[in-house]
Amino acid sequence: MAAAAAREHVERIRRERFYIGRGEKNPLADDIHQAVTYLSEELYSKDAHFLMELIQNAEDNEYPSDVQPALEFAIIKNDITATGAASTLLVFNNERGFSAENIESICRIGKSTKKGNRHLGCIGEKGIGFKSVFLVSSQPHIFRNGYQIKFNEEPSEDCDIGYIVPKWVDEKPNIDDIQAVYGYSKKLPTTTIILPLKSDKILAVKNELSSTHPEILLFLSKIRQLSVREVNDDPKASKISQISISSEVDYRTQKDINAESYTLHLAMQESKSGDKEECTYYMWKQKFVVKPDCRDKKRMEVDKWVITLAFPHGQRLSRGARSPGVYAFLPTEMVTNLPFIIQADFLLASSRESILFDSQCPMESAFEALLKSSSNAPSFALPPIFRFLPRVFCKPSEVTRLDGAFRRILIMAKKQGIDLQNLCSHGTFVMISYLDSKEYNDVLGFLGVGYVKYEWYGKFVDGSNLVKQAPEEIYLELLSFIAENWWLKFSNTSMWDVPLIKYVTGADYPSYCSVNAASMHHMRICIASNKIVKLETQNLYDYAFAATKTIDKASSALAYCHFLYHSHAKKYIAEGSVIKLCHAMPLLDKCGSVIKQRNTLLVPAEGSNWFNLIGMNPWRSQKYIDLSANYISSGTYAGNYIPEGQLTAFLRTYAQAVDVPFMRPPNASFPTVSSPLGMENGLLLLEWIKNIRSSNFSLLQNFLSCIRNVDEEYYGNKVHVYVEELRAIGVQFEFGDANLCIANQPLTMENVLWIRDLRSRGVQLPHNVMRHIRNGSWLKTSIGYSPPSLSFLLPAHSGNLVEIIPEFFDVARIDQEFYEYKRSAYKDELHAIRVQFEFSDASAHVVKYMMSKSSNGALSRSNMLALLQFIRNLSDNNLNCANFVEKIKKGCQFKTYLGNRSPVNSILFSLEWETASVISLLPFIDTLFYGEDIVDYSTELELLGVYVAFKQNYQLLVDNFRLLSDEITPDITILILKCLRYAEIPQNFIKRLKELTWLKTCLGFRAPPGTFLVKDDWKCLLHIIDDIPLLDLNFYGDEIRMYEAELCNVDLIVGFTEASTRIVCRFRKLLGSSYFTKEKVVAMLECYRELSTKHQKLPVDLVKCMQHERWLDTSLGFRSPQEAIIYGSQWEHVSQISNLPFINDDDCSEYGLGKAIDLYRDELMALGAKVELKHGAQFVISGVNIPNDASAIKPEAVISLLKCIRSWRMRGSALPDNFMASINMRWVKTTAGYRHPKNCLLFGPSCSSLLHKEDAPFLDEVFYGQKILSYESELKALGVIVDARAGSALMAQCLKSCSDGDAISRIYSYLEASHWKPRNANDN
């Protein structure tokens, strides 16, 4: 019900029943309030017994077919009702919802909607149960099916009545408050009852909720799940419990005693992580006819008593509470001390706590019938009835046997205390073990007792605790049994999906998987040839070796290492076997990858020597694998603890995990020794070299080349211990080798003079010395000490070098001031050591520098601005920068909003590009990154090839086209059209433009196809059809007409022919609707007149549409002009005998043309409308409709019909059969009355000498006039007899009815003169 209707209903109850708003008081208000108060307080002896009533109400509710009926209680600390409650109880029920009748019932006493419905399954009837909630809540709220109401135990201020007066809830709580409690991930149930609890009742309610008996679901037919949860601020402290019930579908019925038996499974779980408790109940249900003397006036509609006995198989579920013995659908306080439960529809006291003992219930008869039904069973089978009830009901054909091997497994399991409670489930009754023996094979075969189906084994194992609870020996026996019988019995059953296989997860949790899962995830216990789990005996080494081949995950690799460690520690595996397994063992590297092949294994980096000396492992490509830090940590795997560092020590010993200085390096360098080493690392390096040499392992060249620097003072006296090692790495001990180091020291002016002096004396410097001088960082420059080969001494004509080449570019200009401006005197010597003197060399250096900065991405802001300033400086100093600019174009990347781009593919944004930026995704230089200052370098950017001005770069827009805005301005549209005109247009660009909505029309933005650019020569067509998307010329102005060709290229409709074709298509779709009013028809005719005037020849489609489509309203409905008639006087009479399509000329009609028909007569005629009778003969012939009253036909109508027949026959066509059938009636006026045309005669000259016109049915010439004689052939076509001789037979027939002797004489004379004789000679 909608909320508005529900609220109106509540207000009506308040007004009509409680006199609220009526200005008067209900005279029974005080009595009603006292009665409800007394009932609510005295009804129950326990405060929290209202829970039973809420469960009863939920059981009696109706539920949709697609839900599992459920009831959920949630107790929270939040006061969502704003009533000041410390705790609130919410009850959720997924029923169908409230009806108006239910609301009426809640607002009354003793008016239950369930009264008289016991036979329909309702278990409530008193009409007072809901009021019991007032014992724990003073203001219960109900949100249900559109209703949101609350009640108050205090008398209402409006009527002095409490408890039953509903009040609409406007604010708190709202639906969001309720949804927050229930959970946003689930759909809120239809019904929610909210009880803000009284402070002194909170504990009692919690106790009742926590002790709700699980067996409460046994005798409820609808509710299948009951949940209780307590929500706390700390989610970990929240509690939840759940009870659910399921039933077997295999019912057993005993028709002779009107009884049936079945099995119910009850499951209970106290929390999400708690164990699930289960119990099976075997049910016996029997019906007994209620005798007349046993009927109760409260249950007059009940014809049969239904008694149910429930026998628990196993431990009853109780949650620690006392188990009730008697149920009346819900538990009572009755105690029986019987080992089974009794359920019947007992009459109860109002409190539901006790039954009325004077009620008649055949409970003893039910138990007696149960016992008697076993009378045919052997005597030894009677005692177990109370323990294992299904045996009572089974015939031999219903009992099955088990495989002997499986039976032995079950016997062993039972001795171990394993509960096999579902043995007789899944629709199968299993024979007791002491009868299921080979010695009884013959007898059992004779009785028809067979073996269970193979499918049963899988269901039983899946539903039992056999796998989880069985000791190792029984578990292995079970696996062996399944493996041995796999192909014969289980390969085609659900045994594939039963969780049989035990394994330990990576998180050290035991778990189970099915054969299917084991096959898919490589979790097989052992590998068998047929790829099916098969029990094999393997020693630990074989198993461990096989396991190495299946390890692909990091968690598995780590677990395997722990497995080997503990197996070795407990001496399960021999030393030699451990070494072999460790070499085959997959290991986890620092990146978390599983490595199966390696050359050398490095200990974990954390705390290792190799990491302190070398840093990150540089030798991974040489398969030097550094172990994961997980191998250092302590942990517990499969219940075994390992201290920190023990696993690494194990791997050092058995997997040869090594560390510096004991590892052998590969023939590869490592970068860290190219920089200064600390004393400890330096000595460690020497110790490493010493160990390598002592093991007769040659030091590799690549390894040695990176170790070449020793500072004796820094390392102290200890360095002398390693003389041989120092020699090995190239340390020189002779003074003669000292000249090689000259280039490593900064040189003063005197040092340079020394070199010049050597040259002047003709001393040739050794090659090595010269090489070191050229490449040594000794020359003082603007950026520090630099090698001569990378230094510059530029000529004076190059301008102010500091201004031209900023320090930023690291151009090493020789420090003239340092060298006292004497460097120029040593030009030859500087040339010899490769100092550079040309400005082009400095530019090349700048290019190289800029390229290095752009190699891994775009230029930084500082680099970009320095580059542009450098180009500006070159230009300002009149230096040629063309070569420099060309290299920068090819080698540098600029940062744009679309990523990094070369200069020639970048754009500097300005207002010229604003419109272009809307239709294309363009690489504008990122001014946020480079700063707004970059705009000041537009000239320099243009030199580098950057697009600065737009300069009609339409092709660039087409190549990068992407419409980036929904707001299309006229400028944007014109720009797109210019692109179409001036750029080379690919087909996909045209296709995109046809698909996009970028043209503004009178109907909003549209794509070009179907849009019109109106032109004066066909503008009138627009008056015919509404809602034509016309290009909005007010929006674009006349400029857009300059681009008609481009618009046509994207399928915009411009030309007369195309426009008329599209409008004709729209026109045809509207045919047959009420669209063609008088105004539209006039517009059509006006359009035809205008187009005919402007165009000598109209498009064929347009003309055909106007001529042949039905758009004119006529007296016979809508017709085409060629099927219509313009009414005139000559049509007046013939319309009496023919239904004709006259064009509607009614001024008052919505579709009538009125006076406009005269204005557009010429156009209608040009389109084919008929004006003259001779042109409309076909309409008269096809529409002929002779009236039943022939006297109403005027002679002019007949003459007009004959004219039409003449016009019709002039076409050479015979009159249609349907026309001839339509005129075959008495309508032609003769001297003898109205006759069929074929029974009429034309009074010709041959008749006048012998007959009078009254002697026979001659055509009445007086009525029709002499003119009718001119239509002799037309009359003949109608069937009229125009030849006197042909009418002799008709004349002879007239003798029969003629009484005038003179007339008879004249007729005989005429017949004699005509030589007529009857066909039958005997005819008188």
Automatic annotation (TrEMBL):
Pfam families xrefs: SACS
Superkingdom in the source lineage: Eukaryota
Residues in Sacsin/Nov domain copies: 44-145
InterPro entries membership: Auxin_embryo_med, HATPase_C_sf, SACS/Nov_dom
Family annotation (PANTHER family): RING-TYPE DOMAIN-CONTAINING PROTEIN (PTHR32387:SF9), WU:FJ29H11 (PTHR32387)
Protein name: Sacsin/Nov domain-containing protein
Organism: Leersia perrieri
